[in-house]
Design a protein that fits this description.
This protein has 219 residues and is mainly alpha-helical. It contains seven helices and two strands; from the N terminus they run H-H-H-E-E-H-H-H-H. It folds into two domains: 2-51; 58-218, no CATH class. The protein has helices at 2-12, 14-55, 64-79, 86-95, 98-141, 146-175, 179-218; strands at 80-81, 84-85. A hairpin with a 2-residue loop joins strand 1 and strand 2 (84-85).
Length: 219
């Protein structure tokens, strides 16, 4: 009896080990399925991120739209001088009369508008532009973010043009300019804007070509 009981116990002993092996195998299968789901979810997230940045290219100097925006920006800035279109200035110098009156009215309206904005919200605008420029400078120099570099190539020259425009508005207001004196001041201001634009376009073109060559050869 004792021997048969011992044999019975020995026959039953492997069964818990088999159950444990089956349980471990099933847990590994479940873990594998969970890992597969997690990897598929991670791959889907990476695909979504990659798709977004393929549609919206964050590289700027190799993007045609950046150069089109740069050309439109400077052509518009040099065409509208203190809010007065250049063709109206030329027509006023050629014909006088009502064309001159239109230029004088438009120039003085924009002068009063810009000076009012600068006197009321000038401090806030300067603080915001300083914050924005500093942030872009850090991104462009310390982290070499090309998008920030491209924005700086647009923003810094526009700040110079804005300061020059406010100076011209002050001259128009203080001298109460009109007639030929006003046209002369607007022409000088336009030539100053074109000079800034020429240097800005040259620097942006050289820097953009350097970036494209560097990334194309080493990146």
């Amino acid at each position: 009896m004792a021997g048969s009981g011992k044999d019975c116990c020995e026959g039953l002993a492997p069964r818990p080990l088999a159950c444990q092996r089956k349980g471990a195998a099933s847990s590994r299968i479940r873990a594998g399925r969970g890992t597969g789901r997690g990897s598929r979810a991670g791959a889907a997230g990476l695909d979504w991120y990659k798709t977004i940045f393929e549609v919206i290219d964050m590289r700027s100097f190799s993007n045609l739209w950046f150069w089109l925006a740069l050309a439109v920006l400077w052509s518009t800035t040099s065409h509208f001088v203190v809010g007065v279109p250049h063709d109206m200035i030329r027509r006023a110098a050629r014909e006088g009369g009502q064309a001159m009156a239109d230029v004088e009215s438009l120039a003085h309206i924009y002068t009063r508008r810009l000076l009012f904005i600068s006197r009321v919200g000038g401090a806030f605008a300067v603080a915001f532009l300083a914050f924005l420029t500093t942030g872009l400078l850090v991104l462009a120099t310390a982290y070499a973010v090309e998008f920030a570099q491209a924005l700086l190539c647009l923003l810094i020259p526009m700040q110079i043009v804005g300061a020059m425009t406010l100076r011209t508005c002050l001259m128009i207001e203080q001298g109460d300019l009109g007639g030929d004196d006003l046209l002369r001041r607007l022409r000088v201001h336009r030539m100053s804007i074109q000079t800034v634009g020429m240097f800005s376009l040259f620097f942006t073109g050289m820097f953009g070509m350097y970036q494209n060559l560097t990334l194309g050869v080493f990146g």
